[in-house]
TrEMBL record:
Phylogenetic lineage: Archaea, Methanobacteriati, Methanobacteriota, Stenosarchaea group, Halobacteria
Protein's UniProt name: Putative transcriptional regulator
Pfam families per record: HTH_20 (PF12840), HTH_HVO_0163_N (PF24266)
InterPro entries: HTH_HVO_0163_N (IPR056504), WH-like_DNA-bd_sf (IPR036388), WH_DNA-bd_sf (IPR036390)
Domain of life: Archaea
Provenance organism: Halarchaeum rubridurum
Length: 170
């Protein structure tokens, strides 16, 4: 394995779910060089890649399915904020979570669609059909959040989307 591939493999092992631009930024590699080495690592079975909602993420081969989704989603600032509120406050109503992180309910629902699809958050309904958001695996969620550090580009995109959301909020 070349030095660059060893660097990429090591970085992905330490930062599971990192996406292409995050790798490129962290390791200061040219686009073509990063593409070439990642292609070879995936082809040779040294790394795995998965697409989540428009972004390709890279993982160690032995990374479990739940972790893959959790790492990919937790790299988005708004999702991290939702998960942190649920960790700090426990089961909460969607309106409470949206108010706590200052986003529109529609934005929260967009992220909840992904979180519930991958069994990271569950929506529970009471006898009056009121929804409560509950973390499915709180201890594992803590582990994921401790591992994920957002890149500058991730934060920029998330903040831009929040700005657009606040402009068009009714």
């Amino acid at each position: 394995m070349t030095d660059q591939r060893a660097r990429l493999t090591s970085y992905v092992t330490d930062h599971p779910g990192v996406h292409f631009s995050g790798l490129q930024e962290a390791l200061d590699l040219a686009t073509g060089q990063t593409q070439y080495h990642l292609h070879r690592l995936v082809r040779d079975g040294d790394l795995d890649r998965m697409e989540f909602y428009g972004r390709t993420h890279y993982y160690p081969i032995d990374c479990p399915s739940w972790d893959r989704a959790a790492f990919a989603l937790a790299r988005r600032e708004t999702v991290r904020d939702v998960l942190l509120v649920l960790l700090e406050s426990g089961p909460s109503a969607p309106a409470t979570v949206a108010d706590e992180i200052d986003i529109a309910r529609s934005t929260l629902e967009h992220h909840l669609d992904h979180l519930t699809t991958h069994d990271i958050v569950r929506k529970e309904r009471d006898s009056r059909n009121r929804v409560t958001l509950v973390l499915v695996q709180p201890e594992e969620t803590v582990r994921v959040l401790e591992t994920v550090a957002p890149s500058v580009s991730d934060r920029f995109i998330d903040r831009f989307l929040r700005l657009v959301d606040s402009v068009f909020e009714v």
